[in-house]
Amino acid sequence: MKEDQFDTKMKRSLEQHSDSMLKHKEDIWKNIEEELFMTEPSRKTTHAKRKSKVGKRIAWIISVAAAASIIGVFTTTNTGQALVNQIKQYFEPKKQVEEHIEGMPEEKEIVLQDTIKSGYVIYIDEERYKLVEEADRDIIVPAEPLGDIYPEVSMSIEQVEDEAPEAAVARLQKELADNYATVKEPEAVTEPLTATMLSAIDGNEWNSPVSKIYVLSNDRGGSFIITEKYFLEAAEGHGARFYYMLQQFSIVEEVVTNEG
Amino acid sequence: MNDNELMTAIKQGDQSAFRALYDRYYDYAVRVATIVLRNQSSLALDAVQEAFIRIYRSADSFRVEQSFKPWFYTVLLNECKRIATKHGKLIAIGDEALQAFERGSYDQHQFEEYAELYDELQRLEEHNRVPIILKYIHDLKDQEIADTLGENLNTIKSRIFKAKQRLRQRLQTTLGGGEG
After folding, report:
1. A139, A246, A260, B47: which has the highest count of C-beta atoms within 10 A?
2. Strands (DSSP E) along chain A, which ranges?
3. Which of A1, A22, A36 sits opposite B30 (nearest CB)?
């Protein structure tokens, strides 16, 4: 066989075995564009839906905040627990939502967590995650533990009564700088919630640890600090799922009354 | 604009230049990734996507006096390697070609020839297989392949020579393909 004939056959053989992949060009471009040029990665496909969701959420929070103001303070007394139960009825115990994870739509059920006594509301996908109450914070972790080869994956929610958001941001930025190679400047964000966002990454390997922290006011001089931990390769998996969870997050207003 | 001019524009944040580069390289990149990853389509698409993201984010580290192609393929092959490692051992499937044949896109003789060549290519050792893929998919010159893989030129020439020899023998023995 002549050299040029062989070359032609070789080339055609390789093309034949990869022709079908050419059709994915625009889908892949869309993913790249979302990752690089959107404020939050991997959200463009859901952008329109997210906008309408935000509108609904604002109205919903207003009504919940109003309900909370009427009902009053949360305590550990029987009366307080009754108030918590009353507030809970304003939230759907379960919701059906559609999320886009790694470019694919996922229909799922999310479940209201028992966190109203901690001053906030969140829903999680209990097939994948569980919420663990610790002494000074709640932490959401994978329902099935990840293998030892993976860095920590979690999202903790902590209310710090005596630290204003500005002070918390300064402290957390320093802590991140001590532990991560790259720390970005704090950024004001409105999605998935209105907060100051800090983000850091320690390397550029698939398993490099990533931390993303949202700091927001608790409206009483203190802060809510939400800390996501995952690794680079999980940014569009766990990272995206945490993002959706935070879209459901809301602070439940505490108002001191004569109750409790 | 040539590749390096596009990269200069990308360094300055020109998104349309990045799209132009994508248009120029996507077909080659997805073919290389598909074959390197032995037709595991979703892994290949992941590798291509991540490679382009890395290219954009690392544009500042690209020196405009260097050749773009080897730099691009180094990034792409690293992504393929990372993804292959993450997903463990890969199995050659080659089902895309089979489907094409079933759809009647190829005549039977050609199909057999190409399938034989492809199977034989996938049986080559990794260090011989990858240079052949780069050479035939995007016509990379031997020097560019050497730069991509961080090997010296003579090593690459020798690997390509041996790989081609083996592929030709295979084609001739299994299909009786002689001269012409």
Report:
1. B47
2. 94-101, 104-112, 120-121, 123-124, 129-133, 138-142, 154-160, 182-183, 187-189, 195-201, 209-217, 223-231, 250-251
3. A22
Tokens for A90, please give them.
């304003």
| CA–CA separation, B149 and B71 (whole Å) | 10
Cα nearest neighbour of B56 on chain A: A36
User: Which of A13, A14, A28 is opposite residue B49, by nearest beta carbon?
Assistant: A28
CB B155 within 8 Å of CB B146: yes
Assigned domain for A4 exists: no
Q: Angle formed by the axes of helices B41-57 and B68-86, to 10°?
A: 130
pLDDT in tens, A132-176: 999 899 999 999 888 788 899 999 999 999 999 999 999 999 999
Is pTM beyond 0.80? Reply is no
Query: What does the pLDDT look like over B71-128, one tens digit per residue?
Result: 899 889 888 888 877 766 443 333 444 444 344 444 455 556 677 788 888 888 888 9
Residue of A nearest to B136 (CA): A11
**Nearest Cα residue in chain B from A9:** B114
Residue A97 tokens, joined: 């939502």
* Of residues A150, A115, A120, the one with CA closest to residue A134: A115
| Tens of pLDDT, residues B119-171 | 888 888 888 999 999 999 988 999 999 988 888 999 999 999 999 988 888 77
Identify the CATH class of B1-90.
mainly alpha
- CATH 1.10.10.10 range(s) for chain B read 94-180
Q: Is B45 in contact with A32 (Cβ distance < 8 A)?
A: no
CATH number of the B94-180 domain:
1.10.10.10
Altogether, the residues listed in chain B come to a count of 180
Calculate how close chain B gets to A231, using CA atoms only, in Å.
Answer: 14
Q: CB–CB of A106/A236 below 8 Å?
A: no
